[in-house]
Amino acid sequence: MPQSITTAQIAHSSSRTRRELDEVADLLGIPQVPAESVDAALAAARRRAEQEVSRPTLSDDRRLAACRALYRVHQLQTQRLRDDATSAIRSVGEVRHTVDDLLQSTTSDLITEIPARVCRGLSFGRAMLSSVHAAVWLPKHLHFESDDGPDNTAFRSYVTGAQISLADAPLESSVVRTRTPSMTSQPDSDRRTFKEIVAVAHTVGYVVAPIVSQGRVIAILHVDRPTDRQISATDLSLVAALSECLSSVFERAILADRLARSSTRVDEMFGDITAELTALDDVAGPRATSPIVAPVSAARPDISADVLTSREREVLGHIAIGATNAQIARSLVISEETVKSHVKQITRKLGTSTRSAAVARFVQIGGRLSAKAPA
Are 165 and 135 in contact (CB under 8 A)? Predict the structure, then answer.
């Protein structure tokens, strides 16, 4: 499995770069370059070195030192770009692995698992998953890769139980309205951001992406790095790809939950019917000893639940919760024609003429309907 650059490695790389920036400042004979991020500090050091090199009155020794400083800054920026490219390539694989690991999770498990897996797989320091309901943003689960420090405690305390109107958060409101991921690299001055959460989170930039189910945004995912490494366009692209995959994962989990509830209701319904028939038998008293032979035309073949294949049981499970052929095809990643063929085989094998009758017949012969068809 490909491994992405971890948050700890990013922090170590940033610290090393800052130490080398101090050496560059020494070469230029200037104080340490202050900046909010390593990338900003490198850009500032490069501008200063270029200014020094171009000064006409500069001595040869100073010009040579400035050239060395400029060359070192160039090397550091090149290495940063190379690290970003390597991380992006590896992270593409991590998107797939992250999604694969979540495929069998329930909706409640997804809420707690996604933030941690996103941080560890894609080298983010923090991730928060929120639900969206009636134009209100409701934080559900917040994960820190490094959970030490008062800032994290204050942030967690703020979002716990928070209900944020999307009218006060234009950036998130736009993401929900357009179903398109977005980012901000200057949240303090960006008019679109919700300033209260920006202040308590001390974020220097973040990406927010929608999670969509049946054409509606049901959740939003926030990610950032509360270190000195800023969010980039590459991060936006990766999170955009991930959010599309997570939308499918959530749809699958929601359908599985509905299927499980429907299966339970079907079991309860047939249990009630069986109890009522038993009660009627008790009231009617003993039956005549001479057996009554049913007409041959009314007899059904003696079959068991094993008559259906694993895929046919999976299709029947979706039918049980009222899914259309198109929905079944999308969920199982097959064509609608294939679904129709499976339905035809199911009704033939069970000796029924309708989809609902097939569900009832399958349960009657001891079959169990579940989100994951039995092997």
Answer: yes
Q: Which of 208, 201, 284, 206 is nearest to 243 (CA)?
A: 208
Tens digits of residue pLDDT in 224-281:
988 756 788 888 988 998 898 888 888 888 887 777 777 666 666 665 555 555 555 5
**Listed residue (207, 220, 286) closest to 247, CA to CA:** 220
- Does any domain span residue 158? yes
Q: State the burial class of residue 299 (Cβ atoms within 10 Å of its Cβ: 0-12, 13-18, 19+).
A: exposed
Residue 164 lies in a domain: yes
Which of these three, 227, 250, 273, is where a domain ends? 250
What is the tally of structural domains in the chain? 3
Whether residue 320 contacts residue 359, with contact meaning beta carbons closer than 8 Å, is answered with: yes
In a domain, 296, yes or no: no
What average pLDDT does this structure show over 336-358? 89
Q: Tell which residue, 5, 18, 9, 156, has the closest CA to residue 76.
A: 18
Are 121 and 145 spatial neighbours (Cβ–Cβ below 8 Å)?
Answer: no
Task: Give yes or no for residue 182 having a pLDDT over 90.
Answer: yes
**Which CA distances in Å does 110 have to 105, 120, 316, 346?**
6, 15, 25, 33
Residue of 227, 143, 140, 243 lying closest to 183 (CA atoms): 243
The tokens for 357 are 């009758």
Task: Name the residue among 97, 113, 190 with its Cα closest to residue 206.
Answer: 190
Contact (CB, 8 A) for 329 and 314: no
